[in-house]
Design goal:
The structure holds 2 protein chains of 2 kinds. Chain A is of the alpha+beta class. Chain A has 9 helices and 13 strands. In chain A, strands 8-10-7-11-9-12-13 form a 7-stranded mixed β-sheet, with helices on one face. In chain A, helix 1 packs across helix 4. The N terminus of chain A is likely disordered. Chain B is of the alpha/beta class. The radius of gyration of chain B is 21 Å and the shape is globular. The chains are: A alpha+beta, B alpha/beta. At the A-B interface, helix 8 and strand 13 of A face helix 1 and helix 17 of B.
Chain lengths: ~350, ~375
């Protein structure tokens, strides 16, 4: 096969078992697709493992599997999501992400053109974030044993001395901040699900949050807690923190930003935005005295324009997250039992 | 959000709360049964109880379709999926309800049964069309609101000659359930359940109208106010009930005039009576056997009746021991009176249907209201 044929083969062909077989087809795929789009000096070393310069500080590492359905959705696709998701997990330790690794599981018959779209989107997201994909792996499974493509990414970063993000540092009377509107990602995915499709302009909020975190940590190095409310939404994330920090939380429903069309879609489908996944938002807990300064920093960043103080940490031996409703009453904000929307990320 | 925010406005809620507090007479209590699980959840989700004076109480009724389905019928559905090899199409709420020995549809699915969650009867028909070599059974549950879509599905299946589609019909009727609650010993003889009036169903009434409740109001001298599902609807309806009680009236009033008429949706009623007929009796969880309280598919559509198409076996079905769902569904106990509540029984590990359904009273107490129990416990046990 000559080189001129290759782009059209990618555009027309589909994944077959030889692409994972370790032979020439696999080598071609790696070179023509992965290296071509994701290439950087580390990946180009061509070894099974990337050799990386060590940096000062404590190392942070996180890994995340992405099995989202559908693969392409308003506002993003599995490619950029797999970059953002892991970068954010690293960033929530207060760290600066440095490197990414990516593992692909491809299903036989998956169109190569779609794979290329996904890899291009990954490359774009990684470039924008300034974090290279330094090593990777590809496997192919028989038709019916996967669902197009699954991507696992692993991220490394370093965290500066003096920054200690941990639920152990969460204390009663601290402030709870949220970086923007909730439920955009989950509702965008839902709007494209088979047998549930509805017309909407809602787009996923998928985004890398490490520059926002960098700005926040620089302004207030003593931030106690950061976490991105992905699966299970704001409700699950706050309950996780409350349980591990052994505190309660008191929220004000009126302070939690939700876009009107997201609220309308949730109303229609009988869902609670508090339980719906986000991919570009973070929760921050800090001393009450630092809250306004942090809020200013967040408002000045493109990923924190709608940031708000949504509540306070409270003494509560039952570790309950409670909310004053917009109606004027009180209620518990609970975890969700079971899975509301499977395969959301 | 237009047409929604208006019914959740805080300033109006506070105004209504003051009005109710002014008109509810001190020295007496008001017990109102909200029949529908939808009302129970609105009350807890928005914290409506916080806006009520201490002498106005809500008694939670049996209007939760998932909750009132007896274990036996759920076991039958599991059998259909496991032993008869059908594709069972079901609404999501049913998936986690525990049957005999905690066997649920979700467990059956994990063990290999083909059970699919659907959002409407049209999805069930779609599955039947896409799988012509498989039998597809729609697990039909619900009150009068969900019955017309089932009737339409059967008519469509007949028109299209969809021979692999059938319905396992468990549709039940609201008025007979209300009548049964009012006839129950707890209300009539023992006096352990006080009911001074009813918040009447909202969506159900959009189909059957307000007229069917006139009988209760007259015979049992209980006021009924048909109430919408928004929190302000609930509060306005409570005020209307308080006024009826104070004035010694027992009438059917309609707060939900933007949807409900006296006659209801005649077209839907016609569709339902074309396809279904009354069962002489039907078992309800909590209420026991209630005469003329459920529907079955008419002989003319017997070809689409899963109970006729498949030989469903007789079985010994059992509720979870010490689960208080039955008493809770009659309003005789509160979820917190149950020994299992919040200990072995939570939404993650439900022992009874009331903890599973998004309309169940136990789920509402646990999910939205359990801080009240914490507060009460703290008061009982001084630190």
């Amino acid at each position: 096969m000559n080189a001129i044929d290759r782009p059209s083969r990618l555009a027309r062909g589909s994944v077959d078992m030889t692409h994972g077989g370790g032979g020439r087809a696999m080598a071609d795929l790696i070179r023509d697709l992965f290296h071509r789009h994701l290439g950087n000096s580390f990946l180009d070393q061509g070894n099974d493992a990337a050799l990386l310069p060590a940096e000062k500080g404590r190392l942070v590492m996180s890994t995340d599997g992405h099995v989202i359905s559908p693969l392409f959705f308003p506002g993003g696709d599995i490619g950029c999501l797999s970059v953002h998701g892991t970068l954010n997990d690293v960033a929530m330790a207060g760290a600066r992400p440095l490197y990414l690794a990516a593992g692909f599981i491809l299903e036989e018959g998956f169109p190569l053109a779609d794979l290329e779209r996904i890899v291009v989107s990954m490359a774009h997201a990684a470039r924008q974030a300034g974090v290279p994909v330094v090593t990777g792996d590809t496997k192919v499974v028989e038709k019916g044993k996967g669902d197009g493509v699954f991507i696992t990414t692993t991220g490394f970063g370093v965290v500066l001395d003096g920054v200690e993000i941990s639920p152990a540092r969460v204390r009663p009377s601290q402030a709870i901040l949220l970086s923007g509107t909730i439920a955009d990602h989950g509702v965008a995915i839902l709007s494209k699900r088979e047998n549930l499709e509805f017309e909407t302009e809602i787009r996923s909020d998928t985004a890398a949050l490490h520059t926002l975190v960098a700005a926040m940590v620089e302004a207030v190095p003593g931030v106690s807690m950061l976490r991105d409310p992905t699966r299970g939404g704001l409700a699950a994330t706050l309950n996780e923190i409350a349980r591990s920090a052994r505190v309660g939380m008191r929220l004000k429903e009126a302070a939690i930003p939700v876009k009107p069309d997201v609220r309308a879609a949730c109303e229609l489908l009988g869902l609670d935005p508090l339980h719906i996944a986000n991919e570009g938002k973070l929760i921050c807990i800090c001393d009450a005295g630092d809250a306004e300064r942090l809020l200013d920093v967040m408002h000045g960043h493109e990923n924190g324009v709608d940031a708000a103080i949504i509540g306070t940490v409270a003494n509560d031996d039952a570790y309950l997250v409670q909310m004053e409703t917009g109606f004027g009453g009180s209620r518990v904000v609970d975890w969700l039992a079971g899975e509301q929307l499977p395969r959301i990320c | 959000m237009k047409y929604v925010d208006e019914f959740r406005a805080r300033d109006l809620a506070e105004k209504l709360a003051r009005q109710i507090a002014r008109e509810a007479q001190t020295g007496r209590d008001y017990h109102f049964m909200e029949f529908c699980g939808g009302h129970t959840h609105a009350i807890f989700r928005y914290g409506v109880q916080d806006l009520m004076p201490a002498n106005v109480h809500f008694v939670h009724g049996p209007g939760c379709p998932v909750c009132v389905l007896p274990v036996r019928r759920l076991d039958d559905a599991v059998e259909l999926a496991e032993k008869h090899g059908v594709i069972l199409a079901t609404y999501g709420d049913m998936m986690r309800v525990p049957g005999t020995k905690q066997r649920s549809l979700i467990r059956a699915r994990a063990d290999g049964a083909d059970i699919r969650m659907i959002y409407s009867t049209q999805d069930a028909l779609k599955i039947a069309r896409a799988n012509p070599d498989r039998q597809v059974v729609f697990f039909a549950i619900g009150f009068e609101t969900t019955t017309p879509p089932t009737a339409v599905a059967i008519l469509q299946a007949e028109a299209k000659g969809l021979e692999n589609f059938s319905v396992f019909c468990n549709h039940v009727l609201t008025p007979s359930a209300i009548g049964h609650v009012l006839e129950s010993p707890e209300v009539r003889d023992l006096g352990t359940v006080n009911i001074d009036g009813f918040l009447g169903p909202s969506h159900v009434s959009s189909v059957i109208g307000s007229q069917p409740y006139e009988f209760f109001a007259r015979e049992f001298a209980k006021p009924v106010v048909i109430a919408g599902f928004e929190p302000l609807d609930v509060m306005q309806s409570v005020l209307m009930l308080v006024r009826q009680v104070n004035e010694g009236r027992a009438e059917v009033e309609n707060e939900y005039t933007r949807v409900v008429t006296r006659d209801g949706n005649l077209k839907a009623q016609t569709l339902v009576s074309d396809v279904f007929e009354l069962r002489e009796s039907f078992e309800w969880r909590g209420l026991g056997t209630v005469p003329y309280s459920a529907l079955r598919i008419r002989d003319a559509y017997a070809a689409f009746d899963a109970e006729k198409r498949f030989a469903i076996s007789e079985k010994q079905s059992r509720e979870t021991k010490s689960c208080e769902c039955p008493a809770i569904l009659r309003g005789a106990k509160k979820p917190t009176d149950c020994k299992l509540f919040g200990t072995v029984c939570t939404p993650d590990n439900p022992m009874g249907s009331c903890m599973v359904s998004s309309e169940g009273a136990c789920a509402a107490y646990w999910t939205y209201g359990r801080f009240r129990e914490q507060a009460a416990k703290r008061e009982r046990v001084p630190a």
